[in-house]
Amino acid sequence: MMKFEVKDQFELNGKPFKILSGAVHYFRIHLSQWADTLYNLKALGFNTVETYIPWNFHEPQPNQFDFSGQLDIEKFIQTAQALNLYVILRPSPFICAEWEFGGLPAWLLNQPNSRLRANDPQFLAAVERYYQNLLPHLVPYQVDNGGPVLMMQIENEYGSFGEDQAYLKQVRDDLRAGGVTVPLFTSDGTWPEALAAGTLIDDDVLVTGNFGSHAVENFDAMTAFFNAHHQQWPLMCMEYWDGWFSRWGEPVIRRDIPEMIADLKALLQRGSLNLYMFRGGTNFGFMNGCSARKNHDLPQVTSYDYDAILSEAGVPTKKYFALQKMLKELWPNLPQATPRTPKLTAYATVAADGQVGLLTCADYFTTTISRYPLSFEQLAHYYGYVLYRTTANTPRPTEALKVIDANDNVQLFANQRLLASQTGEAIGDELTFAAPKTTTQIDVLVENQGRVNYGYKLQAPSQRKGIKGGVMVDHQFQINWQQILVDFDQELLARLPYQPVTTQHPTQPTLTHFTVHLAQVQSTFIDCSEYGKGCIIVNGTNIGRYWARGPIHSLYVPAGLLKPENEIVVFETEYTRVDSLKFLDHPLIDQENPS
């Protein structure tokens, strides 16, 4: 039976063990690519893989759990074990990770007066239920049960959020009650206040640090904290940021490779490492996070390339080979191998074979009726888009219209004619429109661009999406609403009344259908540089958002989502013509300077 211990150094079966780990998120990489990605981690010379576990993916609705297919965490662990990799798991309720709502399920926002990430009975009851369903999938794989799992995380960067030690202790107790016997840890920034608030060092829970530079100084800060609490523990950077994430409208951030390698070398001479990220992957669907700002939050892009050691598509970068070389210099006998490189193909351009306007085909989608508009959370439709529709009395030739309290982007229509798109502080600006009839169909398309994944706004009302106050015509709140839940289910998309594509620019959001035949199935990128804003669905899987704002103008399509005959639908909201589908064998990025 194996045993992993935290003493003055990490010990595995009584022998010193230096953790060389890389972050690989199973939920961001198609399951068909898990094995090759983990093989490349092993080929680098590493011995461990680390992954977060996103609560919102595994419990998408209250008490409805999913551990199948892409969410089969057991299969991911088994794949690592087959390659003789150890595993670090981070099943904390909150993960940050630039993931929608930091991994918290949006349905938590329906709990009245509940406080998130706190010693709150409602929140802790939900955490306990989650662990009761999650932990049976993890506990059998602990090292002391013959598996590869070395340790698990209690909470993530809690010292940058709160100081509720009772909450941290309850999460710890839930993990122990669920059968977790391996060492537990916390991870925080290394300044004293964060370490004091976010750790359980006096309860013998391992403290690890998160940083992306100045390794010596950060380890010095951790050592001082350990000494102040009379602990002699191994130093570990649980997240060494080898790159950074991207937000819409901002340039891609790249790390200087020689500077990073020098800093990592100094780190490894003193402690253990988890590279964040080894392979970043993709925020498929609507799972991108969002950076909190006072007036208008900044949503992150679909690609989670992160300038990581492997690219979004799994291609080894210059960083990979520089790091492999440095490791060999430190430990000449370290086992390494040549990495695997995936094949990427730029397929021939395909013409659209049908198109339909969203307002025209709204009756095909599931509709909820209410007297006043309901939020996304009240509708249990937590992500993407909702189309709100009512008929207003408009006795005057000119009327005024405004939306009260909505997030994050709204498009307003009168009799299917676009009046305006509003976002941020512009939402709520009053519009006037011509009303040639005594009644007018009012449509409001609302997009949730992503809930914040870090910081004070986790608790803010702005994280509830959709129309929350109402819609006024003249000075009256309108009643009798249809909420049309824009779903991209493959069977539903196949039934839509597509018409031949015209040369005219669309006057409403459109869904454009493509049939794509492939003689050979390989990974690819879809070129979105001529589109406006929207998302793309490949064989029923939403591969993510695109936006002309950049900096990334392509969407990655893993081979595992493709087959010889494919149905692809582009949902375009900005009235840009979509009549062809172009493919690339590389991403399309503004000011690209690849590693």
Supply database-style keywords.
TIM Barrel; single chain; Jelly Rolls; alpha+beta; 6-stranded antiparallel β-sheet; BetaGal1-like_ABD1; 8-stranded parallel barrel; 595 residues; 32 strands; 17% helix; 10 helices; 3 domains
Question: What does this 3D model show about the protein?
Answer:
It catalyses: Hydrolysis of terminal non-reducing beta-D-galactose residues in beta-D-galactosides. Keywords: Glycosidase, Hydrolase. The structure is a single chain. 17% of the residues lie in helices and 29% in strands. The protein contains ten helices and 32 strands. The chain has three domains: 4-329, Glycosidases (TIM Barrel); 350-356 and 488-584, Galactose-binding domain-like (Jelly Rolls), CATH 2.60.120.260; 366-486, Galactose-binding domain-like (Jelly Rolls). Helix 8 runs parallel beside helix 9. Strands 4-5-6-7-8-9-10-11 form an eight-stranded parallel barrel, surrounded by five helices. With 595 residues, it is of the alpha+beta class. Helix 4 links the parallel strand 6 (86-90) and strand 7.
What does this entry show, briefly?
The chain is built from 10 helices and 32 strands.
CATH topology title of the largest domain: TIM Barrel
> Strand order across the biggest sheet?
4-5-6-7-8-9-10-11
Assembly level: single chain
Q: How many runs of DSSP E, i.e. beta strands? A: 32
Tell me the domain tally. 3
Q: What is the rounded distance between the termini?
A: 43 Å
Biggest sheet character: 8 strands, parallel, barrel
Low-confidence stretches: none
Provide the residue-averaged pLDDT.
Answer: 97
The whole-angstrom Rg is 25 Å
